[in-house]
Amino acid sequence: MLTPQIADKGVTRHILKAFGLHASHRLGQNFLISPAVVRAVVEAAEIGAGDRVLEIGPGIGTLTQGLLEAGAEVTAVELDKKLPAVLAETLRGYAHLNVVQGDILKTDIPSLMGGEPFKVAANLPYYITTPILLSLLEQKLPITRIVTMVQKEVAARMTARPGGRDYGALSVAVQYHTEPEIALDVPPNCFLPEPEVDSAVIVCAVRKTPAVDVKDEKMFFRVVKAAFGQRRKTLTNALKPLGVPKEQIEAALAGAKVDAARRGETLSLSEFAAVADGLTEQA
Ligand code: SAM
Predict the structure, then answer these.
(1) Which domains, ranges and CATH numbers included, belong to the chain?
(2) Taking CA atoms, which of 88, 178, 255, 257 is between 20 and 30 Å from 57?
C-alpha cells in the first residue's frame, strides 16, 4: 500500500517552516495535503515499475513521493529556485529521481526525456495551465498519458462537447490529441494553502493518431481559433479574419455540409476538419 508521508497538513507545515518557506501565490503554490488524492493521481497515471514520468512543479515533493513509491522514474521540473534543495531532503533515499530547476515552458523536453515513451503527472500551477497543456500537446512528444490537477472549470472546458458554453478552442485541441476524462473532483481543503477555486484531476490518454484526419493541421487550428475568437458570430463572419475571400469560405462550408449561419461553438471536430480541408484544397 502506497504511503505518501509528505501529503499531510502537519508534515507540510513542518517542511515549510523548517526551510523558512512561504507558499508563493505568484508561482501558483498550493501544496497537496491529501494522501487519498495523491493515491488517486498515481492510480489514474497507471504507474508500473520503471515507468518514466515527467512531473511539472514538484513543489516539496508530495506527488513525487507517491509516483516514486509506485515505482516510477521521475524527472521533475520546478521553477522555484529554493525547492531543489528542499526536495533533496524530503525525497532523500529515492534513487530514481532527477530534479531540474527551470521553467517548464522554456525546457527542452525532447533533450530532457529522450525519445522513449513517458507519462506526465502534475498538480499544475493554475496561472499557466492552458499554455503548459497546449505546449505539451503541440510538441508531439512521445507522451502516452497526462494526469493533472487543474481548476475544475478548466477540466470542464477540456472535456466539453459541442454546443455548450464550456466548448472552445481548448476543448478541440485537447480532444484532437487525447481522450480526456475527469477522474476526481478535489475540494480546496485538500491543499495548503487552500485555493479559491475547486479543482479536478483530469486524465488525458494521448491518441496514437489525432481524433480526426486533416489535410493541414495549421489550417485546422486557424479555423478553430477564428471560429471561437468571435463565438457569437455566424461562421461566415467569424472566419473573416482568416483573410480568405468570402466566396471561398462559403464554398468550404457548403462542401463540408455546414450551414453558414451556424456558430463555431456548435461544430464537432469532424465538421471543423471538413471546413479546414475545404479551405486547404482551395488555397
Ligand atoms: N506538486 C506539488 C504538490 O502537489 O503539492 C506542488 C504543486 S503547486 C500547485 C505548483 C508547483 O509548480 C509549484 O511548486 C510551483 O513552484 C511550480 N511552478 C510554477 N510555475 C512553474 C513553471 N513555469 N515551471 C515549472 N514549475 C512551475
Answers:
(1) 9-206 (3.40.50.150), 217-282 (1.10.8.100)
(2) 178
Give the global pTM: 0.95
Question: Which are the contacts of 62, defined by CB distance < 8 A and separation ≥ 6?
Answer: 4, 6, 7, 12, 31, 32, 33, 38, 123
Relative to the CA of 122, which ligand 1 atom is closest?
1
Question: Which parts of the chain have pLDDT scores under 50?
Answer: 1
Tell me if 63 CB under 6 Å of ligand 1.
Answer: yes
Question: Does ligand 1 come within 6 angstroms of the Cβ of 104?
Answer: yes
Short-list 187, 179, 188, 186, CA closest to 201: 186
DSSP secondary structure of 158-205:
HHPPTTSTT-SHHHHHHHHHEEEEEEEEE-GGGEESPPSS-EEEEEEE
Mind listing the pLDDT tens digit for each residue in 107-140?
999 999 999 999 999 999 999 999 999 999 999 9
Three-state SS annotation for 10-40: HHHHHHHHHCCCCCCCCCCCCEECCHHHHHH
* Shortest-distance atom of ligand 1 to CA 59: 14
- The verdict on the CB of residue 75 being under 6 Å from ligand 1 is no
What's the 10 CA to ligand 1 centre distance in angstroms?
20
